[in-house]
Amino acid sequence: MVFPGRKLALFVNGCFWHGHGCLRGARIPKSNTEYWIKKIERNRVRDKETLIALQKLGWRVHVIWECEIKDRDRLKENIQALMD
Ligand SMILES: [Zn+2]
């Protein structure tokens, strides 16, 4: 999600795919473990690069994790806080 007027970029990241530090993100499939670790590590590096690139352009970047979406009230508060 991008809000050009506010120079605000919101990313919604899947915990598994983007290697979140929560329980869901820490789970690695038992088969092809090596493959998944490398793949997720690559995603994390790319996320970081994207974030830094946007910040250099003067954007505010906020990541919303999949596990945070479940708590709708908190999510709404967080987004509201970013808009103020
Ligand atoms: Zn998570």
Automatic annotation (TrEMBL):
Transmembrane segments: none annotated. One of its GO terms (biological process) is mismatch repair. It holds the Pfam family Vsr. It comes from the Bacteria. The keyword Glycosyltransferase does not apply. Keywords: DNA damage, DNA repair, Endonuclease, Hydrolase, Nuclease. Coiled coil: none annotated. GO terms for molecular function: endonuclease activity; hydrolase activity. Belongs to the Vsr family. This is Very short patch repair endonuclease. It comes from Komagataeibacter sucrofermentans.
